[in-house]
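User: Predict the full complex structure for these chains.
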Amino acid sequence: MAAPQPGQPLPPVRKELTQEKIARYAEASGDVNPIHLNTQFAAAGPYGRTIAHGMLVLAYVAEMMALAFGEGWLAQGQLNVRFRAPAYPGDTLCTAGEVQQVVSGPSGKRAVCRVRCLNQQGQVLVEGEASAALP
Amino acid sequence: MPSQGSFSLADLPAGHRFGPQRLTLDEGFGQHYLEAIEEESPLFRRNPGSGGDPKWLPPLALAARALTALMAGYSLPPGAVHAAQELEWRQKVQVGATYTLSGRVARNAVRGPWRLLTLELSVADQGVQPVLWGRATLTIPQGSEGKAGEG
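Assistant: Here is the predicted structure of the two-chain assembly.
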């Protein structure tokens, strides 16, 4: 893997979100908050419908980082993001990001990146910073 | 984020501690999690390209499962939103590994029409070495506290 350069884009990850996928994530993670699963409950809430787990959407951002940086991301990484808007069943999500800088520290070099996930309307759902260890 | 339980997270004071408790990420969980997020990278296969059982897991698998496990028995009020997340990890997350989880309420404060709840999570391996640390910030509309989510 060539050394990342500032401005270098990260490989996007695209996912079609469905209620079934949200339910599957709820079962896997153990987070069964009814706002993700119960249409009646969600209809009475602030969004009017079920929404995806923030950690599910963040998992897609993490997948992008894993694609970009491989085992360095798995071995030593950081994420610092804000959730800006919910993701709904039926949305098409796409992650994006770019290397901001390569920094050196006590544990070696790291690639610091800006990361985000957008829906099909280009609305930013999640954005922030992620970093991965470099070989 | 937790949802089931008799006690509301919004009622917990800053400094309240969760755990410690143990968590093992078995192969069933690993497979289930990877399928749920549609992760097909060979990074998570024992034998890349052969479809073998996963050996490593995404760090967020540990974070997500640990948060849920640690806060079982607690619920969030309606309208609670996951506003921000910080995570940092120092080891690969391994299928079959057992971890020790602990956490605390770092902040529970009212800011205008919102309650801000910050939960911290720490995960260590069996050698007591830090593996993962996280901080989740939730916003809860004022007036909805104490009304546990319908389960």
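The longest helix of chain A spans residues 54-69.
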